[in-house]
Design goal:
- The chain has 521 residues and is an alpha+beta fold.
- Among the domains are: 164 residues, CHASE domain (Beta-Lactamase); 51 residues, no CATH class; 103 residues, Beta-Lactamase.
- It has 15 helices and 13 strands.
- The strands form 3 sheets. A 5-stranded antiparallel beta sheet has the order 2-1-5-4-3, sandwiched between helices. A 5-stranded antiparallel beta sheet has the order 10-9-13-12-11, sandwiched between helices.
- A hairpin with a 4-residue loop joins strand 9 and strand 10.
- The two termini are 33 Å apart.
Length: 521
């Protein structure tokens, strides 16, 4: 049946060659377009991953800062026999934590109380002016703890006064870890006692153990015997995250779908950052996962975005697709014209065959150039410490120029000294204008010399990530993307069009077409 169809509709009219070439050229065009699409998406993913990594660094740095604050509070107790309520209040006021590290709900101290000490402890706190004070929840237990200091001592924090965190399993596990290791620990997901019926958020707590003044704490048994309480802070996760990332003024964060989970699994039950739960089945190609481990407490962070700011630039993909379809159509039309040209001369038939073969080779050569222009490595990353005049170049940055890890130092001249002489003045001026605040974004296309003496076209992008108090840039992070292939692709397409024009101009024969009634059209 297939042979009959080919013989009737194609073979008799000798048109099958043209259709075959059209199909092959369109398939190659589709393949090249898909490759370009994948590379564009890969570039978008790399940029998005950089933003995710910056947020991870901020969260890790802030958690360490919170731990240092609590260690300072623990140091007050460990350097004296007792710390009064006024001394604790003065310490927290001096810290000014809400301004320096926003996101802290409070800074408190929870005291260890044995059953034999419970009555005397309650009476002592009531004598301070808190007539209704009691350790909550009420009940008989082997050990009690009580939040006796918590600053600021107002608003939501009043609900926590006297609460026995040891009575709740999740909090107790974190308190035991801090006591036994001597290090700061994070609790799992809890509902804070400070929560009301409005704007309820998931919460976590950080604990730092406080040992008796002068007691030895070298062994596990000694630490358990010497524990007198914990310096701690409660955190509402949304407030904590906004405080860390400064999301109110951070457009990158506002465009992200960020979720934080307690543990290493994505689950609606262990979500800490209480936003709308994002089903992984609906993830975009930008979806990223990162892990944080704070002294044994793992967090899983997932990032995604459907904002156009992070979407891939498909302009090159469309350019290749449209150019490929156009050239395929032109070639198909040319072959159909040649096939339909009637001639009885063997010489003319040979000429037609050579033209067909030449056209096919020309198409294959064009497709090869497209694939070559699209092939390339990933982006290189650079991190410029402006204050110390040093630059960290990633391994891929060095490999892009043909260098090994040890062959490139940390000076700015490693980049500026390799810029093409014709591009250097303009490129450095663009960078200087960005540092001086004359432009809102740093982006530059220029040539950089490789180890072998050749030059590559580089798309250089960067942004200031740290400034001093005067607003001067301290740190700039960016990427190097090899766009040499894209430049070559543009030149190759122009040359191909010129080649087609030359073929028509140099052809020794006129081109005549006939309709189905064998009339000259």
């Amino acid at each position: 049946m297939l042979n009959t169809f080919i013989k009737k509709y194609c073979l008799d009219n000798r048109q099958w060659r043209a259709y075959l070439i059209l199909i092959v050229s369109l398939l190659l065009t589709g393949y090249a377009s898909l490759e370009a699409k994948h590379r564009a998406e890969g570039y978008a993913v790399d940029n998005f991953a950089i933003e995710c990594d910056k947020i991870i660094v901020k969260i890790q740095e802030r958690l360490l800062t919170y731990a240092l604050i609590l260690k300072g509070g623990a140091g007050l107790f460990e350097s004296s026999d007792s710390v009064s309520r006024q001394e604790w209040q003065a310490y927290t006021i001096k810290l000014n934590a809400q301004q320096t590290v926003p996101g802290v709900l409070g800074i408190g101290f929870s005291q260890v109380i044995t059953p034999s000490q419970l009555t005397a402890h309650t009476e002592a706190i009531r004598r301070e002016g808190f007539a209704d004070y009691t350790v909550r929840p009420i009940g008989v237990r082997d050990l009690y703890t009580s939040i006796i200091y918590l600053e600021p001592f107002s608003g939501r924090n009043l609900r926590a006064f006297g609460y026995d965190m040891w009575s709740e399993p999740v909090r107790r596990a974190a308190m035991m870890q801090a006591r036994d290791t001597g290090e700061a620990s994070l609790s799992g997901k809890v509902l804070l006692v400070q929560e009301t019926n409005q704007d309820v958020q998931a919460g976590v707590l950080m604990y730092v153990p406080v040992y008796r003044h002068g007691a030895p704490v070298d062994t596990l048994e000694q630490r358990r015997a010497a524990i007198i309480g914990w310096a701690y802070s409660p955190y509402r996760m949304m407030d904590l995250t906004l405080g860390i990332i400064e999301a109110a003024n951070n457009p990158e964060f506002q465009r992200m779908l960020l979720h934080i989970f307690d543990g290493n699994q994505v689950s609606a039950t262990n979500i800490l950052l209480d936003k709308t739960y994002h089903n992984p089945a609906g993830n975009s190609f930008l979806y990223q996962e990162r892990h944080i481990n704070f002294n044994g407490r793992p967090w899983l962070l997932t990032f995604d975005s459907h904002d156009s700011q992070y979407q891939a630039d498909y302009s090159v993909t469309w350019l290749i697709l449209l150019a490929g379809i156009t050239l395929s159509g032109l070639l198909f039309g040319l072959m159909m014209s040649i096939i339909n040209t009637r001639t009885n001369a063997k010489r003319q038939a040979n000429i037609q065959n050579r033209e067909i073969l030449a056209g096919k080779n020309l198409l294959e050569e064009s497709e090869f150039r497209w694939r070559f222009a699209l092939e390339g490595a990933g982006d290189g990353v650079w991190d410029w410490d402006v204050a110390n005049a040093t630059v960290h170049y990633s391994k891929r940055w060095k490999e892009m120029l043909g260098y090994t890890e040890e062959e490139v130092g940390s000076g700015l001249e490693e980049w500026s000294g390799r810029i093409h002489p014709e591009d250097r003045e303009v490129t450095l001026a663009i960078a200087q204008d960005y540092l001086a605040g004359k432009s809102n974004i740093y982006i530059s296309e220029h040539r950089v010399q490789c180890k072998d003496g050749s030059y590559k076209w580089i798309l250089d992008r960067g942004m200031i990530v740290a400034r001093d108090e005067a607003g001067n840039p301290l740190r700039v992070i960016g990427t190097h993307a090899d766009i040499t292939d894209r430049k070559q692709t543009e030149l190759t397409l122009a040359a191909h069009n010129r080649d087609l024009a030359v073929i028509f101009d140099l052809s020794p024969d006129g081109i005549v077409t006939f309709d189905n009634a064998h009339r000259v059209r």
